[in-house]
Write a sequence for this structure.
């Protein structure tokens, strides 16, 4: 069965997209087949994997017209990684989904046929930075949630919000199987603030926090302009090494479930 | 007349909240009276100005129950800066506003009485990182939009999206007076990527880009844990000096309109 992983944090700029494209590339290199679902109207995961966002070829049509998602799956700059692209119109889908009867399960309905085909080992959803309807749809459809987090104070304040939302989605019955896959610390630079934040997050969330910490490196910022994950663009950079280690830790833990 | 300034960019983590709390503090030190409107359910501007988010005292009640905003204006850790706080429930307001007849002008309706009282020189709106209904409401109510932008590739890709949205809000008649106040480059560190991005943004947006560039400094990340803008927490830091210079440039330009 395909595992559906939502990569989510309502705090903006914490490394959700960077984690999606690099995790996808690393686990693909370990022999998994991966489908990325770009649920962010900014379409950063789409361009970060070398795909031109094209109006009419995105999740938007499938969500609103309940079309077949298979028609919008395209290849990317990374072998064994496919994507359902995003486009700006996706922002408009929020209003349309809000007006549906069961507005929490719009995404699940279009994903089910893909999951049943069992073509992909992992379906990884890049979530927008919001607490809105697209994010709730992703949590309602996912098996688990990966939460990237900057080593910053505002990001730490927001952690209880996303974990609270996951809890509510699970206990309300919207998605009883939903669990937290883990918390990944990103953009680490050696400062007292970063060390304080990591210490507090580890003391509060314990084993949910991955051992791997992703360092800050300008190479991560350069990679998207080449349409490549940083593990492909600059494989010997510190940030790429971080994501290689994280990919392995992710797969080792996934075996344990 | 109070000037309503929306600080907005759908790209996450570009320094919207940090710019709002520091601009508010700097122009208050220049003798202006300022009201901050925290439109982000994360409530970062609220805690960044030393205010505890409190359920029931926020924009949410006013937006959904059309109550008087005056009842939810509170003081902050900075003299002459007041705030209408946010709370997590504000995320729920999106669905409720989507169902109203004129879903673009919900915020304008509750702001109008405050603007007419003419107590505040500036009303500064901290926007969430989204293209959703709260953001559109802010653009529909604002006189102008300040766009903070990280010196990064993804942030550059997103600039045409926010400027496109501003154009649509103006030309559709939703807010014919709306203009771009300016583009502020933030979190600058001296890399080839940052210099490339600044050069491209300047060549495309010309004079709309402020001369002042805000440098990256860990002091900016430390300040919110003390409930203070960095200009109050570490006034001689490079990032505080950046915001002092920006506040002056902002006021000089505002005179020109
Ligand atoms: N380890 C890193 N070191 C340096 N820069 C990074 C790193 N990871 C990500 N970045 C850069 O930081 C910015 C934010 O990262 P990213 O866009 O992945 O975050 P996000 O959470 O997806 O943002 P949003 O909330 O807008 O969706 C991007 O410009 C990205 O290139
Ligand atoms: N000049 C700076 N130097 C270093 N860190 C900064 C700077 N400006 C902001 N930060 C930090 O970067 C993070 C993102 O900034 P901020 O929260 O202000 O962005 P935002 O655009 O409001 O994010 P969101 O999209 O989530 O609303 C915060 O942790 C903040 O403390
Ligand atoms: Mg993203
Ligand atoms: Mg913010």
């Amino acid at each position: 069965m395909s595992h559906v992983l939502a990569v989510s944090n309502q705090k903006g700029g914490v490394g959700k997209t960077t984690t999606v494209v690099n995790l996808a590339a690393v686990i693909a290199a370990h022999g998994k087949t991966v489908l990325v679902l770009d649920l962010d109207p900014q379409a950063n995961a789409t361009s970060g994997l070398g795909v031109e966002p094209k109006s009419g070829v995105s999740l938007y049509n499938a969500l609103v017209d309940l079309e077949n998602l298979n028609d919008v799956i395209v290849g990317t700059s990374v072998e064994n990684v496919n994507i359902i692209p995003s486009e700006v119109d996706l922002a408009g889908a929020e209003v349309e989904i809000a007006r549906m009867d069961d507005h929490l399960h719009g995404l699940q309905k279009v994903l089910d046929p893909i999951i049943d085909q069992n073509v992909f080992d992992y379906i990884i959803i890049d979530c927008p930075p919001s607490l809105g309807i697209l994010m709730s749809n992703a949590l309602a459809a996912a098996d688990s949630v990966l939460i990237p987090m900057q080593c910053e104070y505002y990001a730490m304040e927001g952690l209880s919000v996303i974990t609270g939302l996951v809890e509510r989605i699970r206990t309300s019955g919207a998605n009883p199987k939903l669990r937290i896959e883990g918390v990944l610390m990103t953009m680490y630079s050696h400062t007292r603030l970063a060390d304080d934040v990591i210490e507090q997050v580890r003391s509060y969330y314990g084993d949910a926090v991955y051992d791997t910490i992703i360092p800050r490196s300008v190479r991560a910022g350069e990679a998207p302009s080449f349409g490549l994950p940083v593990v492909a663009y600059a494989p010997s950079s510190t940030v790429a090494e971080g994501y290689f280690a994280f990919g392995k830790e992710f797969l080792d833990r996934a075996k344990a479930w």
